[in-house]
Amino acid sequence: MSLPTGASDWTNSLHPLHLGEARIERTDAGLRLIRLPSTAAIYSDAELLGREPNRWRPPLSLIVRARFSHPVEWLRGTAGFGFWNAGIGPTVRRPRPPRAVWFFFGGPPFDVPLALGVPGYGFKAAVLDAQRLLFFALLPFAPLGFLLMRQPTLYRWFWPIVQTAIGVAEVDLSELDLTATHSYRLDWRDGTATFGVDGQEVMTAPAPAGPLELVIWIDNSYAIATPQGRFSLGLVAASETQWLEIENVEVRVEG
Questions:
Q1: Run of H or E residues at 195
Q2: What are the tens digits of pLDDT across the range 31-47?
Q3: Taking a C-beta distance cutoff of 8 angstroms, is the pair 145, 162 a contact?
């Protein structure tokens, strides 16, 4: 099954959802996911979801043409597009180890530095698979690990082991002008994922297997999860309207 191309078709192949101070509008370019001004007491989220949750698996390619209302340094909350298992978030009742293959944005105070040398915030291409046996094997040692990671030298030595355990690979794309329309491509194959922007490859990395859920969203949430043991989930106050405009979505399923 593939999502059809063409604005008149693909917009009907995704399920719209908006919560709190958010809405979805049709524009001349496609669909605009809008997060309105709101307080930190209200979860505000605009999403487009695949109509068959948790059914996507490789091999496939996802192509999204999109632009944001603001440059990366002015955006707040989280946003992105790709595939995940809905493992954590304000609307998830039973959190589970996350798995994801996506383009992801997290704005201040968001800080989840999972890949050594890559900031824990900003716009990035990323894969994550915390449902590996090595992750569960290391889990009992997490309290000791948080203490060790507070020493910079030990962090540089040991974090790559943890990064492998949770299947993380990331590349920072925050230098992109997000207010311009870009073509984002994700080629998700058995065991690997290749990310590209405007025809240029930016990362190839090991990737989780499916099934995962297709999601495109913008909201006002944040997360903090650092190797040194800082953890927090919450909402940010939004003082101005921000949006993610999707001009086209195409999923090409092979086989």
A1: strand 192-197
A2: 999 999 989 999 999 99
A3: yes
